[in-house]
Write a structure and sequence with these properties.
The protein is built from 11 helices and 7 strands. It is α/β, with parallel strands linked by helices. It has one domain: Rossmann fold (3-Layer(aba) Sandwich), CATH 3.40.50. Helix 3 crosses helix 4 and helix 6 packs parallel to helix 7.
Length: 271
């Protein structure tokens, strides 16, 4: 069965689900303000381990999480574009995108005010800003953005349809929606319908569960030691499962195919 955390969060009512996830991320950002923890995704590792993006030495510890951002956000050329990450969390991904992929502007939006505060304090990069906002009611003008990135965040939202409609609204014609997230395998057809009903063209649909599992397994020892050091008491086990350490329920569900992880490149066509 799914991990207790995901089984519960994926089945509760939309409004309650939004509230629960917001409380969780507010708590994590406030309780654990360490600047060592700036990425919150399961990571990506190609089966060809010789493929490595160049990183600064101090960023090597976050390589697998960064590789997921790179795989998703480098699917289109971001140079000189106005880009937004919805669900920017602790800000590491938005910072990486701005520094390495060179959009003209990069804005991180998150529903957790504590996460926005953390991001502003720990990511000082020219052209990078962080603002509080709701994925289902984005604080952005119509047709004002070239690219929207959304990595491992949408499963927290109350309404995927509202979020996708908002993305479509704020993208300029020919703008791109770069999306990656996990779902129970039986929900992918409904996800495809949500994208098509909103008006998006699917330029790429890629199953990356294997690459995510590769990263989970490669990063297991570091992640386990990190949480053992940082988290004490009753929260350690649920956070280990939440983080996807090797042998956790979520790791098992990815491995047996009950949970899947997809990457999409979607385009808003010209009117």
């Amino acid at each position: 069965m799914l991990s207790n955390i995901f089984a519960f969060f994926l089945k509760i009512s939309p409004g309650f689900k939004r509230a629960v996830w917001k409380k969780l991320y507010q708590y994590l950002a406030k309780k654990y303000p360490t600047e060592e923890w700036t990425y919150m995704n399961y990571g990506y590792q190609s089966s060809d381990t010789s493929i490595k993006i160049p990183l600064k030495e101090e960023e090597e510890k976050d390589r697998y999480m960064i590789q997921l951002y790179h795989h998703v956000a480098s699917a289109v050329d971001l140079k000189d574009k106005d880009a937004v990450e919805v669900g920017s969390g602790r800000g590491g991904g938005a910072s990486y995108i701005k520094r390495y992929l060179h959009p003209k502007t990069m804005t991180g939006i998150d529903y957790s005010k504590n996460a926005i505060k953390f991001s502003k304090e720990h990511h000082s990069v020219e052209g990078l800003t962080f603002i509080y906002g709701d994925a289902e009611n984005l604080p952005l003008a119509n047709e004002s953005i070239d690219v929207i990135v959304n990595v491992e965040s949408s499963h927290c939202y109350g309404s995927m349809k509202k979020f996708v409609a908002q993305v479509y609204r704020v993208l300029r014609p020919n703008g791109y929606f770069l999306f990656a997230d996990l779902r129970p395998a039986e929900e992918i057809d409904a996800l495809d319908t949500t994208f098509s009903d909103a008006g998006f063209e699917v330029h790429k649909k890629e199953l990356i569960s294997k690459e995510v599992v590769n990263a989970m397994e490669a990063f297991h020892e570091f992640k386990l030691a990190f949480f053992q050091k940082m988290v004490k008491g009753w929260l350690r086990k649920p956070l280990n499962d939440f983080a996807g350490v090797k042998g956790s329920n979520i790791h098992t569900e990815f491995s047996n195919g009950k949970m899947v992880y997809y990457h999409y490149v979607l385009r808003k066509p010209k009117a």
